[in-house]
C-alpha cells in the first residue's frame, strides 16, 4: 500500500496531462489506426473490411490503366514539405534568436510588454494576416514600390507566388513559437556566469558562443519542434503566397478526408507522418544528449 | 465511462452559464441554421423573427464534406442545412435527412419548373432550392480582346494571359471544366479519358499562377490574375469593382450548382424548420436573400422584388443555348481517378 | 562606457535587429488595419475611406458571438493547458525517482505530431461515440489537448536552463517542499509559464479544422466564420473585427502596465 502511495506521489505531476492525452488523443488515435486498415466507404467513412491497401497506396498507385506501379508523388510531396519546414525553422532561428536575447536582457516590466507585443499580431486571423503579405509582396506592392522609388530596381521584382514568399509567410506565422521558448531559456541569465565568461574569454563573441548559446540550447530545441511540425501541416501560406501549385503534406491528408473520400488512405498517411516525426525527434534527442551532455553543467 | 459522465455534468453546468451569457436563444421557438458565411441574408432573418417570434441562430461551415462528416457523427443540433445538389442523394442514402414532403408545403407551386422534382431529389421529398448559379471563368477584357466564350482561352491561354491564370483549389471543380472542355463525362471511370484530362491540365499548368479558391476577387481586381475560374455571383461582384472583368459562357456548357434547404435528422425544431421553408418560398422573402448574396433563386415571381442592380446581369442569366450541367455524385472509382489526376498534377 | 564594453548585453546591432524585427512583425498588421477602412469589399485593393465595415461588424450578431466564443475558448484552453503542462514539466524535471521520463516527454508532444484533420475526425467520432455534448466544452477539451505541447515546451526549456542550486538552497532554508515550490521554483519558472500560456492562447485562437469538426449549434468561432466565406469571398468586416480585437488587447495591456507602474512606484 505504501509503495502504491509513493508511486502515486511520484507520478502525480504528470497524471493530469496523461489523463487528458490518453482520454482525448490516444483513444481517438486508436480509431484512426483501425481506420487505416479498413476499406473506404463510398461517401467517406469506412467499411468494416480489413485491408492494407491504404499503406500500399503510399508508394504504389494504380496508374490510370489500373496497373499497380511505383508512385513517387507522396515521397515528393513529403520531401518538399520537409524542405520548406526546415528552411522556415532556420529563418525563425536567425530572426528570432537575437530578438529573444535582446528581450531577455531588458528590465522586467519591459520584458513582459515586449513579449505581448510579439504575440498581439497573432490575435488576428491567419487568413487576414496572409492577405496583408499579398499586399506587401505583390508586383505593385509595398516592397516593390519602395525598391522602385529608391531606384534600387526598375521593374518590379517577382516576390509573390514563389517558394520564397511561402517561407516568408511561414516564418512570419511561426516566429513567436521560436522566440518565446528561447527567451524562456535565457531570461535572467546568471550574471555571475557571464562575468566569469567575460573574464575567461577575450571577446564578446566568444562568450556569446560559449556561454549564451549553450544556455539557450533547450530553447532552440523547443522552438524548432514547435515550428517544424506545424509547418508540415500548413496550407494557407502555400496556397495564398505560393500559388498552391504543389501540394503539401497537410493538404494531401486533408484532401483524403474531404473530396478525396478515402479515409483509410488519409489515416495511413497520418500514421506515416507520425512515424517519420517520431524517428526525427528520437534522433534529435539522442544527438542532443550526446553533444549536450557536457553543456548542461 | 462514469468518470466521463460526471465530468460532462460538471462541465455542462459551468459552460451552461457561458452559453446563456453568449446569447443563445432561450425563447420558446428556436431555429438553428447551418450555412456558409454571408450566405443567409440578415434582412430575411429579421423579417422571419419578427413575423413568427422564432429566434434564429446561424452557424457556419466550409464545405459539403464537413457537413456530411458532422451529420454522420450526429448530435449537431441544427435544424436547417444547405447541401449542394451533389450531396443531397448522399445525405438521403445515408439516412441523414428528415422528409419535408415538398409538394405539401405552402407555396410549393412557386418553385420554378427547373427545380421542381429535380434529378437529385425526386418529388422534392427532402429539399427546396435556396440559391443556384454556375461555375465558369472570368476574363479581364482590357487585356484579352478576343472571344472569351471558349475553353481554349482558359486551358490553352493566349500569350497575354499566360502566367496569369487562376484555377480552383478543389479537384472536383477544377477538373469538371476540363472534362466539359474535352467532352468527357463528369464521372468518367475511363482511364483513357482521364488521361486526356490530365494531359490538358498538365499542359496548362505552366501558365497557371495559382490553384486557389480563396481570394479570387482579390486577385482578379488587383490584376494578379487576368483569367480565373469563378462562380457567377462572385464574378459579378468582381465586375462591380473592375468593369472589364467579364464572365464566360463557352458553348460546350458550364457547370451548374444549386444549394438546397434541408432538415437534418436530429432536428429538435422540425415545425419551425418547416415554417422557415414555407417563409422562404414566398417570392418577396427569397428576393431578400438573392439581393444580399447576389445569386439567383428558384422561386417564380421573386424577380419583381429583386434589387435593380441584379436584374438583367449577364452573370446571373446564362444564354439559352449554353447547356447548364449540374454536378453529380460520382462513384468511388471515378473519385479515385479524379484524385489521381489531381495528385499527379500537383505533386 | 567602460561598463558597456564589459557588459555582454551590449552586442553591437542587437537593438537595430530587434527594431527591424518589429517592423517585419507590424507592417502586415498595419496593412490589415488600413484595409478595415476600405470602401469596397476587397481586402487587398484600396478604393477609399469608409467606416461601413465597422458598422457592419457592430450590428452583426453572428460575428459578435463568434468572436466571443473564440476568446472564451482560447482563454480557458490556455489556462487549462498551461496548468497541466506546468505540473508535468515540474514533475519530469525535478522528480529523481521517476522512470520512463523520455516516454512521458514524448507523449507530451504527441498532439503536435498528428495532422490536424486527423485529430479532428478522430475526436469527432470519439466524442459522438461516448455521447459527449458539452457545446463549447467539447471544443475547450480538444483545444486544451493540442495546446499542451505549446505550453509545455517553453516551460521545459526554462527548467533545463535553470540553476537547480537555488532550489536546493531554498529547500534547506524552508525545509518545506510546497513552500519551495511556491516561493522559489514557480517564480523562477514564471517566464516559461508566461511564454507557454501566450503560445497556447494564440494557437487556440487561430484554430480552424478541429474546432469546425467539433462545433455544435451555437459554437461557431471566428476562424470558422472566416473560412466559411464560400462563393461570396471574405470582406474587410473581418479586418474591422481583428482591429477591434487588437485595439481592445492593446488597451488592456496599457492599462495594466500603467496600473502596475503605479503600484510599483
Spell out the key features of this protein.
B: 347 residues, alpha/beta, D-Maltodextrin-Binding Protein, domain 2, 2 domains, seven-stranded mixed beta sheet, 12 helices, C: 265 residues, MetI-like fold
What can you tell me about this protein's structure?
The complex is a heterotrimer of chains A (297), B (347) and C (265). Chain A is mostly helical. Chain A has helices at 2-12, 15-35, 53-59, 73-104, 108-119, 126-137, 142-149, 163-186, 191-200, 204-232, 236-240, 249-257, 263-292; strands at 39-40, 46-47, 60-62, 68-70. In chain A, a hairpin with a 5-residue loop joins strand 1 and strand 2 (46-47). In chain A, helix 4 (73-104) crosses helix 8 (163-186) and helix 9 (191-200) crosses helix 10 (204-232). The radius of gyration of chain A is 24 Å and the shape is globular. Chain B is of the alpha/beta class and 347 residues long. In chain B, 38% of the residues lie in helices and 16% in strands. In chain B, helix 8 (216-222) runs parallel beside helix 9. Residues 1-27 of chain B have low confidence and may be disordered. Chain C is mostly helical. Chain C has a domain at 62-235: MetI-like fold. Chain C has 12 helices and no strands. In chain C, helix 3 (52-59) crosses helix 12 (237-264), helix 5 (101-113) packs across helix 7 and helix 8 packs across helix 9 (177-205). The longest helix of chain C has 34 residues, at 61-94. Chains in contact: A-B, A-C, B-C. Chains A and B meet through helix 4, helix 6 and helix 12 of A and helix 3, helix 7, strand 7 and helix 12 of B.
- Uncertain parts of chain C: 1-6
User: For the report, how would you describe the main beta sheet of chain C?
Assistant: none
Judged by helices, strands and strand pairing, the structural class of chain B is: alpha/beta
**CATH architect. name of the domain at 62-235 in chain C:** Orthogonal Bundle
Number of domains of chain B: 2
Distance between the termini of chain B: 45 Å
Tell me the CATH superfamily of the largest domain in chain B: Periplasmic binding protein-like II
Termini Cα gap of chain C: 28 Å
Rounded Rg of chain C:
23 Å
Please name the CATH architecture of the largest domain in chain B: 3-Layer(aba) Sandwich
Rg over CA atoms of chain B: 22 Å
Amino acid at each position: 500500500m505504501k509503495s502504491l502511495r509513493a508511486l502515486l506521489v511520484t507520478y502525480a505531476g504528470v497524471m493530469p496531462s496523461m489523463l487528458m492525452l490518453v482520454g482525448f488523443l490516444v483513444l481517438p488515435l486508436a480509431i484512426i489506426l483501425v481506420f487505416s486498415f479498413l476499406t473506404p466507404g463510398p461517401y467517406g467513412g469506412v467499411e468494416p473490411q480489413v485491408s492494407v491497401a491504404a499503406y500500399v497506396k503510399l508508394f504504389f498507385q494504380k496508374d490510370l490503366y489500373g496497373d499497380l506501379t511505383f508512385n513517387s508523388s507522396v515521397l515528393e510531396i513529403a520531401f518538399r514539405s520537409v524542405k520548406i519546414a526546415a528552411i522556415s525553422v532556420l529563418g525563425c532561428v536567425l530572426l528570432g534568436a537575437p530578438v529573444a536575447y535582446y528581450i531577455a536582457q531588458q528590465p522586467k516590466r519591459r520584458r513582459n510588454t515586449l513579449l505581448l507585443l510579439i504575440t498581439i499580431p497573432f490575435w488576428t486571423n491567419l487568413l487576414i494576416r496572409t492577405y496583408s503579405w499579398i499586399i506587401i509582396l505583390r508586383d505593385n506592392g509595398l516592397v516593390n514600390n519602395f525598391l522602385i522609388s529608391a531606384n534600387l530596381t526598375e521593374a518590379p521584382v517577382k516576390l509573390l507566388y514563389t517558394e520564397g514568399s511561402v517561407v516568408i509567410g511561414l516564418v512570419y506565422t511561426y516566429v513567436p513559437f521560436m522566440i518565446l521558448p528561447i527567451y524562456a531559456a535565457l531570461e535572467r541569465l546568471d550574471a555571475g556566469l557571464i562575468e566569469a565568461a567575460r573574464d575567461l574569454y577575450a571577446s564578446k563573441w566568444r562568450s556569446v558562443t560559449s556561454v549564451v548559446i549553450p544556455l539557450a540550447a533547450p530553447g532552440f530545441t523547443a522552438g524548432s519542434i514547435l515550428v517544424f511540425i506545424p509547418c508540415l501541416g500548413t496550407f494557407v501560406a502555400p496556397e495564398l503566397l505560393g500559388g498552391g501549385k504543389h501540394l503539401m503534406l497537410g493538404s494531401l491528408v486533408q484532401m483524403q478526408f474531404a473530396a478525396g473520400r478515402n479515409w483509410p488512405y488519409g489515416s495511413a498517411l497520418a500514421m506515416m507522418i507520425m512515424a517519420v516525426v517520431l524517428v526525427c525527434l528520437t534522433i534529435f534527442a539522442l544527438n542532443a544528449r550526446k553533444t549536450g551532455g557536457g553543456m548542461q553543467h | 465511462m462514469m468518470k466521463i459522465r460526471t465530468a460532462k455534468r460538471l462541465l455542462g453546468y459551468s459552460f451552461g452559464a457561458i452559453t446563456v451569457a453568449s446569447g443563445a436563444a432561450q425563447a420558446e421557438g428556436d431555429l438553428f441554421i447551418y450555412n456558409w458565411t454571408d450566405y443567409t441574408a440578415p434582412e430575411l432573418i429579421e423579417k422571419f423573427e419578427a413575423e413568427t417570434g422564432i429566434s434564429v441562430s446561424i452557424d457556419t461551415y466550409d464545405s459539403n464534406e464537413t457537413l456530411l462528416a458532422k451529420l454522420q457523427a450526429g448530435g449537431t443540433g441544427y435544424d436547417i442545412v444547405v447541401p449542394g445538389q451533389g450531396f443531397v442523394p448522399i445525405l438521403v442514402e445515408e439516412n441523414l435527412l428528415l422528409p419535408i414532403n415538398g409538394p405539401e408545403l405552402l407555396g410549393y407551386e412557386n418553385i420554378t419548373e427547373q427545380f421542381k422534382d429535380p434529378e437529385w431529389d425526386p418529388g422534392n421529398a427532402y429539399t427546396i432550392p435556396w440559391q443556384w448559379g454556375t461555375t465558369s471563368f472570368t476574363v479581364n477584357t482590357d487585356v484579352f480582346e478576343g472571344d472569351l466564350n471558349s475553353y481554349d482561352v482558359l486551358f490553352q491561354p493566349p500569350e497575354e494571359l499566360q502566367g496569369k491564370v487562376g484555377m480552383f483549389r478543389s479537384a472536383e471543380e477544377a477538373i469538371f471544366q476540363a472534362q466539359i472542355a474535352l467532352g468527357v463525362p463528369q464521372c468518367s471511370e475511363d482511364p483513357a479519358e482521364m488521361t486526356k484530362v490530365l494531359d490538358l491540365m498538365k499542359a496548362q499548368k505552366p501558365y497557371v499562377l495559382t490553384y486557389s479558391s480563396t481570394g479570387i476577387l482579390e486577385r482578379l481586381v488587383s490584376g494578379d490574375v487576368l483569367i480565373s475560374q469563378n462562380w457567377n455571383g462572385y464574378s459579378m461582384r468582381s465586375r462591380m469593382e473592375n468593369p472589364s472583368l467579364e464572365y464566360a459562357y463557352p458553348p460546350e456548357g458550364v457547370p451548374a450548382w444549386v444549394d438546397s434547404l434541408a432538415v437534418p435528422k436530429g432536428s429538435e425544431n422540425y415545425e419551425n424548420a418547416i415554417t422557415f421553408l414555407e417563409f422562404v418560398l414566398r417570392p418577396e422573402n427569397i428576393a431578400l436573400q438573392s439581393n444580399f448574396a447576389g445569386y439567383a433563386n428558384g422561386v417564380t415571381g421573386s424577380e419583381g422584388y429583386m434589387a435593380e442592380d441584379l436584374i438583367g446581369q449577364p452573370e446571373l442569366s446564362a444564354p439559352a443555348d449554353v447547356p447548364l450541367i449540374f454536378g453529380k455524385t460520382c462513384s468511388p472509382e471515378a473519385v479515385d481517378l479524379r484524385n489521381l489526376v489531381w495528385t499527379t498534377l500537383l505533386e | 562606457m567602460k561598463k558597456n564594453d564589459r557588459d555582454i548585453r551590449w552586442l553591437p546591432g542587437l537593438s537595430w535587429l530587434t527594431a527591424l524585427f518589429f517592423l517585419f512583425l507590424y507592417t502586415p498588421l498595419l496593412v490589415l488595419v488600413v484595409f478595415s477602412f476600405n470602401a469596397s469589399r476587397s481586402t487587398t485593393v484600396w478604393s477609399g475611406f469608409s467606416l461601413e465595415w465597422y458598422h457592419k461588424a457592430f450590428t452583426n450578431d453572428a460575428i459578435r458571438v463568434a468572436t466571443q466564443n473564440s476568446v472564451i475558448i482560447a482563454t480557458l484552453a490556455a489556462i487549462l493547458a498551461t496548468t497541466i503542462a506546468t505540473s508535468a514539466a515540474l514533475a519530469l524535471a525535478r522528480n529523481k525517482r521517476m522512470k520512463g521520463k523520455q516516454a512521458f516527454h514524448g507523449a507530451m508532444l504527441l498532439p503536435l505530431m498528428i495532422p490536424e484533420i486527423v485529430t479532428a475526425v478522430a475526436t469527432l467520432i470519439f466524442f459522438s461515440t461516448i455521447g459527449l455534448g458539452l457545446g463549447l466544452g467539447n471544443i475547450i477539451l480538444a483545444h486544451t489537448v493540442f495546446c499542451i505541447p505549446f505550453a509545455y515546451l517553453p516551460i521545459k526549456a526554462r527548467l533545463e536552463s535553470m540553476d537547480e542550486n537555488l532550489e536546493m538552497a531554498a529547500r534547506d532554508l524552508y525545509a518545506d517542499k510546497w513552500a519551495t515550490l511556491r516561493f522559489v521554483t514557480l517564480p523562477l519558472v514564471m517566464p516559461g509559464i508566461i511564454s507557454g500560456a501566450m503560445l497556447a492562447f494564440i494557437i487556440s485562437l487561430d484554430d480552424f479544422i478541429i474546432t469546425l469538426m467539433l462545433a455544435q449549434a451555437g459554437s461557431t468561432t471566428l476562424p470558422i466564420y472566416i473560412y466559411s466565406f464560400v462563393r461570396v469571398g471574405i470582406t474587410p468586416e473581418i479586418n474591422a473585427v481583428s482591429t477591434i480585437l487588437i485595439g481592445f488587447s492593446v488597451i488592456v495591456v496599457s492599462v495594466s502596465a500603467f496600473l502596475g507602474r503605479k503600484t510599483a512606484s
